[in-house]
């Protein structure tokens, strides 16, 4: 099983990245590999012009389609997710999250930004056809250290650990169902071929 974490922060030293690092470490201990993709992995012109032919964009699309699940993380600015996240999500193929559980993570200056998870981030994830969208985790900036490896506030770490464990359970359930889903697709394909004869 593998997970793609999409980091929607324009900052190279991001508090939101600390959330992904914590989640990735916990998933790694459970035997689930996590690869983080950020806006800094792409040429600015490819992002601004939606250059789907760019090798980095094609790799993003392939990685998303091959992943078992997705983590989407963004800082909240003016009651919405970062524009950097929207740019990255616009590069994901139509229905690219289909059949995948998604764990949304957000950080903001105050708890007042909490509703951005439900009213800004989750509708976009639904539009990408995520099979199951976790309730997500919001963290205020005061709960997150800025430096890599710096500990999260205990209350936040506990909430994030619980969310990651639930996300891992969804991944395992999806992996267990994958052979049955493939058999169903093969059966449907066979039936449609027989009907066309």
Structure in words:
The chain is of the alpha/beta class. The chain has one domain: Flavodoxin domain (Rossmann fold, 3-Layer(aba) Sandwich). Helices cover 48% and strands 19% of the residues. It is built from six helices and seven strands. The protein has helices at 15-29, 44-48, 55-66, 83-89, 116-127, 154-196, and strands at 2-7, 33-38, 69-77, 80-81, 101-108, 132-133, 137-140. Strands 1, 2, 3, 4, 5, 6 and 7 form a seven-stranded mixed sheet that branches. The model is unreliable at 179-186 (pLDDT under 50).
What is the level 1 CATH name? Alpha Beta
Shape from CA axes?
Answer: globular
Low-confidence stretches: 179-186
Instruction: Provide the β-strand percentage band.
Output: 15-25%
- Mean pLDDT, rounded to whole units? 89
Q: What's the number of domains?
A: 1
The CATH superfamily appears as Flavodoxin domain
Order of helices and strands: EHEHHEEHEHEEH
Q: How many extended strands? A: 7
Q: How would you classify the helix and strand content by structural class?
A: alpha/beta
By CATH, the topology is Rossmann fold
The percentage helix is 40-55%
Largest sheet descriptor:
7 strands, mixed
Secondary structure tally, helices:
6
Radius of gyration computed on alpha carbons? 18 Å
Task: Explain briefly what this protein structure is.
With 197 residues, this protein is α/β, with parallel strands linked by helices. Helices cover 48% and strands 19% of the residues. The protein has a single domain (2-196), classed as Flavodoxin domain (Rossmann fold), CATH 3.40.50.
């Amino acid at each position: 099983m593998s997970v793609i974490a999409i980091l929607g922060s324009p900052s190279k030293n991001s508090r939101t990245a600390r959330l992904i690092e914590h989640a990735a470490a916990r998933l790694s201990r459970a035997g689930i590999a996590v690869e983080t993709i950020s806006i800094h992995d792409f040429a600015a012109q490819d992002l601004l012009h939606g250059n789907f032919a760019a090798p980095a964009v094609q790799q993003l699309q392939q990685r998303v389609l091959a992943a078992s699940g997705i983590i989407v993380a963004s800082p909240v600015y003016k009651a919405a997710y970062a524009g950097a996240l929207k740019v990255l999500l616009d590069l994901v193929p139509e229905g690219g999250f289909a059949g995948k559980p998604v764990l949304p993570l957000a950080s903001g200056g105050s708890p007042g930004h909490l509703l951005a998870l439900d009213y800004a981030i989750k509708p976009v994830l639904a539009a990408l056809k995520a099979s199951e969208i976790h309730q997500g985790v919001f963290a205020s900036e005061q709960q997150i250290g800025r430096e890599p490896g710096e500990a999260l506030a205990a209350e936040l770490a506990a909430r994030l650990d619980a969310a990651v464990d639930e996300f891992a359970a969804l991944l395992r359930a999806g992996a267990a169902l994958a052979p049955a889903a493939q058999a169903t697709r093969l059966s449907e394909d066979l039936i449609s071929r027989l009907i066309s004869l």
